[in-house]
DNA sequence: ACCTGAACACCGTTCAAGT
DNA sequence: ACCTGAACACCGTTCAAGT
């Protein structure tokens, strides 16, 4: 049969397409292979296993959608970093779950750490504290976005019980919780002044 | 063959055992069935699908390990609730991931909301804010515990690169990040006085 | 460098039928 | 009430071999 012949980048691009169209559960090696008109085993020429493929997909999503944070005071930048990351994750079907998993596994998505960490550079906090803040914010963003996206998909498929949707809207909920964390950071920064 | 005949509770108990011994990836319907000396299809008499089984397992874990928070000022209680939840999740193999997933899907683990929420009852915060705080703390605990547990299993299996382990220890990291959030809450409570 | 063919060892779920 | 038997439609991964 006509050997289609792809490069690693083609495979990642198609994987992003499959993810965004059909969801993470349908992003299987076999499904991806068939979309590329190739046998499943061919994928193992490009990636040692599925985890590495997913890591590459997560990195690609972030590369495409995560914008650098603009200048300003540290608290505005920290808030913008968290908000921008959330929007970036929500921009892709199952983006939050994918990036959070890859990040937790330590195979990719390392750029999100920097994305948040750089906003604290002129906060006056020491490095250990900056790391704690960075991780706390990341856990919050990942947790909130994953729950939001999971909840949405659970509602769209299957029984969508209204009344369970927060009267606020998830965006305002997110902002309010984030402000809580930023205030906690501010309490530490102000003791340095 | 000798029909073994189990009740729903037996199935859940065995599932907890399989989870804690072999991990979430090995908690399959087929594996569980074989441990119970039963055909896979028999499980569908007790649970409509795997999601519901997992929800029951998550509830069972929490039932067995999550202790109520002792009396005291609201901030000490909030801290204790979060710390107790973290310890409860870490007490079981893949406990954090399982409970977080079930919770996000809304099929179980609802008791964790109350576990945290009750500590805020005499904080003076209004209900909307108490909900924000509760969710923020839950996201933080789930995120931190899942990352910690995933990282541990990634390190135990496969390449364990040292130097990547935080110089603090995960417990102190957790405590420091939690204090951040609690300080953020305190900033709101103090404006009420 | 990239792919096929064929296999291995698995999954979740359904459903008619048995006791 | 609880289980079997048999099937359906899938998984990830390996590996020798082809071009």
UniProtKB/TrEMBL annotation, chains A, B:
<dbReference type="InterPro" id="IPR001647">
    <property type="entry name" value="HTH_TetR"/>
</dbReference>
<feature type="domain" description="HTH tetR-type">
    <location>
        <begin position="5"/>
        <end position="65"/>
    </location>
</feature>
<protein>
    <submittedName>
        <fullName>TetR/AcrR family transcriptional regulator C-terminal domain-containing protein</fullName>
    </submittedName>
</protein>
<dbReference type="Pfam" id="PF00440">
    <property type="entry name" value="TetR_N"/>
</dbReference>
<feature type="DNA-binding region" description="H-T-H motif">
    <location>
        <begin position="28"/>
        <end position="47"/>
    </location>
</feature>
<keyword id="KW-0678">Repressor</keyword>
<dbReference type="InterPro" id="IPR036271">
    <property type="entry name" value="Tet_transcr_reg_TetR-rel_C_sf"/>
</dbReference>
<dbReference type="InterPro" id="IPR003012">
    <property type="entry name" value="Tet_transcr_reg_TetR"/>
</dbReference>
<dbReference type="InterPro" id="IPR009057">
    <property type="entry name" value="Homeodomain-like_sf"/>
</dbReference>
<keyword id="KW-0804">Transcription</keyword>
<dbReference type="InterPro" id="IPR004111">
    <property type="entry name" value="Repressor_TetR_C"/>
</dbReference>
<keyword id="KW-0238">DNA-binding</keyword>
<dbReference type="InterPro" id="IPR050109">
    <property type="entry name" value="HTH-type_TetR-like_transc_reg"/>
</dbReference>
<dbReference type="Pfam" id="PF02909">
    <property type="entry name" value="TetR_C_1"/>
</dbReference>
<keyword id="KW-0805">Transcription regulation</keyword>
């Amino acid at each position: 049969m006509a050997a289609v012949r792809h490069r690693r980048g083609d495979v990642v691009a198609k994987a992003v397409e499959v993810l965004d169209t059909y969801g993470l559960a349908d992003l299987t090696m076999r499904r991806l292979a068939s979309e590329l008109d190739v046998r499943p085993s061919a994928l193992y020429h490009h990636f040692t296993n599925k985890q590495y493929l997913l890591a590459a997909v997560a990195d690609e999503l972030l590369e495409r959608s995560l914008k650098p944070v603009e200048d300003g005071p540290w608290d505005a930048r920290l808030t913008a970093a968290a908000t921008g990351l959330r929007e970036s994750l929500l921009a892709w079907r199952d983006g939050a779950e994918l990036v959070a998993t890859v990040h937790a596994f330590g195979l990719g998505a390392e750029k999100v750490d920097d994305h948040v960490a750089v906003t604290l550079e002129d906060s006056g906090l020491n490095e250990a504290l900056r790391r704690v803040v960075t991780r706390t914010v990341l856990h919050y963003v990942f947790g909130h976005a994953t729950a939001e996206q999971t909840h949405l998909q659970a509602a769209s498929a299957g029984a969508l019980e209204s009344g369970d949707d927060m009267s606020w809207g998830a965006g305002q909920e997110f902002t309010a919780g984030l402000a809580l964390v930023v205030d906690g950071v501010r309490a530490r920064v102000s003791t340095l002044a």
